[in-house]
Amino acid sequence: MAKPIYFCNGRYVSADQARIFVHDLGLIRGFGLFESVRTYGGKPFLLEGHLKRLFDAATQVGLKPALNRNSMARVIGSLLRKNDFDESLIRIILTGGLSSGFLPQGRSTLIILADRLHPFPARQYKNGIELMSTPLFRIHPEIKSTVYFSAVVETMRAARRGFDEVVYVDKEGAILEGTTFSVFAVLPGPRLVTPKDGVLPGITAECVIQLARRLKIPVERHPISPRMLRQARELFITSSNRELIPAVRVDRLKIGNGKPGPVTRQLHQVYRFHIQAAS
Fold first, then answer.
1. pTM assigned to the model
2. Model pLDDT for residues 123-134, shown as the tens digit of each residue
3. Disulfide check for 158: which of 40, 97, 132, 225 has CB 3.0–4.6 Å away?
4. Topology of the domain covering 5-116
5. CA of 145: how far to CAs of 30, 83, 142, 199, 273, in Å?
């Protein structure tokens, strides 16, 4: 099987030829940003929103991408044609680049990966997943940085305990977000609750919010408190490569009747209709 083609600092290279310097700040200091985008029908979905979030974050932390948004979109299109997968997962990685010290010293590193998409297991959509909570939060939560040390450690711990994913909670025990996803609770009404402050602004989450409002489902933007979680009829998570996955348990608490619910199914169906209309 042919190796995927990647874009690495201005060059298209096969996956086994992609390189970064060992003194890259993304490696030795964790100073980097990234975005993940998936395709439908071979076309990137919500790419504009992902690129905006990346460039906004780059401006905020002082990173200067070697390409502008339009050029980056063209590179992504070229990668998709070169690899010709049925569907792809695109990852854009921007780091502080080569440095002999603590601070960036010049050109940033830009890597764009296009790999074959591997969907999440069908059983997760059918039966739902179980979440483990942990009293952590991400550094600079509004930025999608490459610093996922705690997320990896906690997800390993969750897997050993039989959970599928990890959600972060604040000091009151309210759910903020997941390691790589946004979280929604469906409360009686129905109405949706999902955090806004102190979390990464989810591109998929924002799309789901807009679709919910079209369905006249009210959306509240604040953390999901323990009381709300006990009242919730349903819970689901969102991300670009997951779409919507129902969650049926958090720690020892069963959500609703412990099965994926109708509001989650309806929103997921509408989300997929939206994808088809946009393709």
1. 0.95
2. 999 999 999 999
3. 132
4. D-amino Acid Aminotransferase; Chain A, domain 1 (3.30.470)
5. 8, 26, 9, 12, 31
